[in-house]
Amino acid sequence: MRVKIQNLTKRFGETLVLNSVSLDIADQELFFLLGPSGCGKTTLLRLLAGFYQPDEGEIIFGDKPMNGVPPHERNTGMVFQNYALWPHMTVAENVAYGLDVRHVTSAEKKQRVAEALAIVQMEAYGERTPNQLSGGQQQRVALARALVVRPDVLLLDEPLSNLDAKLRLEMREEIRRIHAQTRITTVYVTHDQKESLSLADRLAVMRAGVIEQVGDPRTVYRAPANRFVAEFIGETNWLSAEVIACASGAMALRTEFGSFHAPADVRFRVGQKLWVGFRPEAVQMGPAETNCLATTIRQVNYLGEVEQYQLDLGPGTTIKAIEQNPLEIRRLGAPLKVHVRPQDLLLLQVER
Ligand code: ATP
User: Fold this and answer.
1) In whole angstroms, what is the distance from residue 256 CA to residue 169 CA?
2) What is the pLDDT of residues 176-186, one digit of tens each?
3) CA–CA gap between residue 136 and residue 143 (Å, rounded)
4) Does ligand 1 lie within 6 Å of residue 38's CB atom?
């Protein structure tokens, strides 16, 4: 089911929580809403579910406008952060709950509950009560309860945030598998960038009720629209720079710490100021002819598979770097030359 959101605005009293948000979510897409706490993600999900009505704008499922349509007539399934299972009902009864209000025959109910429990691989647990289940199992039941109604749109509100780190990784794989199997259009809210990068077909990064960027994970990570998106989706080092020459295919930039070469970019002209960004993992150890920085090692953090460094460029300017599979022992206070490949630079216009 395609979901179109057009100029959606929502206020709570004087507070503008969503400011003219527009999105076009494709049929069968696994779409993420990502942003810091309070940016309006849950409010947008609740508007899709029909728990809130917008002040302005429209929500369209397929070609059907949803404004004024109550939640139980929207055919959405929702999964909450805290599972929201009924403690006094069995797993099977919890899953069947969504069907009770839909008046299906008891034979069909039984079959659909079994089907939904099979999708989440919980067939053997139908007679248990929620307090006899682990957190991950409870979240599977909550997913089954959302799936049993065969929703057109699945709405997931931080579904993994109550699970420990290991279980969260396992459930990520489960959500990927269930989505591949059911192909239900899914809108998934999270503030965990790794969760969205690893699962999303596309994601929207939100800030204070506004969508800052929509794109597939690789595009948003490697070509963020602005500094907020770049920093929310991953760590970034920034240097302020000026364009000093443009030739076909390349640009020369001057920074306080040396000159840089970057791929040509139509957004920039000679004389223009800009931000040059690069991720810690884009920092390569050792010198190079271009894009080279002379640093002093300020902090070292050995983590086994990687080593993290804080490197001083000069008074008050520090960058972060990550070295994969570190062999050499690098000492605090030692000089270290590093470089960044031109294709790993993030170039951004200076925001006014
Ligand atoms: P989180 O990740 O913390 O859940 P969020 O991005 O989902 O954050 P929302 O829950 O959508 O954010 O809230 C957005 C803003 O709207 C917040 O400032 C919040 O305090 C406010 N808000 C949310 N629900 C209501 C409500 N029912 N009445 C008044 N204000 C609300």
Assistant:
1) 42
2) 999 999 999 99
3) 11
4) yes
